[in-house]
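Appendix B, example 12.
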Amino acid sequence: MADEVNKTIVNNEEAPEVPDVMEDRTHYDDETPTEPRWYVVHTYSGYENKVKEDLEKTIENRNLQNLIFEVKYPTETVTETPEGSKKPKTYQRKVYPGYVMVKMIMTDSTWYIVRNTRGVTSFVGTGNKPIPLTDEEVTAMGVERISLKLDVEVGENVRVVNGPFANFIGEVTDINPETQKVKLLVSLFGKETPMELDFIDIQKL
């Protein structure tokens, strides 16, 4: 899922009117969903904020706060020095241009409302079925920090999956569920080296 979100979106100068989309899709109302999940929608380039604002207005006007809980796109603080200037400039940059994340309970009506918001091109998923982000993806992408359950114990070996030490094997020496941190001993240049990583940065062997 996260890999698909990282794909480049073709720039569009202007978003055309969104048609009344009624293509074949899974019918969600029969599934009686109860828990909100994070879904990702494609947008026309540059329409991320417009989609967010319009969808939030629709939620308020239709009193959908119990079905669509949050709309956002992750940003990061970037400091750059423009060419020809000695003064650095700090601004917020979209981490995933062309995408907006929506925390919602997926039903036929909420699917229809989000999909028909001006500027939205599609949900990220398989075919016509949107696929929610996993808790690990939600945390790793900076959408929301969700407490994860780590299925390992002190003394077990795990694989590092993110960062400069990816694919290294380490022994778990401490697990802290409150901070979502784990301490490892990793063999580095023939020496046991301690390091602390997030839960999402390791994988059970």
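The domain at 157-204 is CATH 2.30.30.30 (SH3 type barrels.). The longest helix spans residues 48-61.
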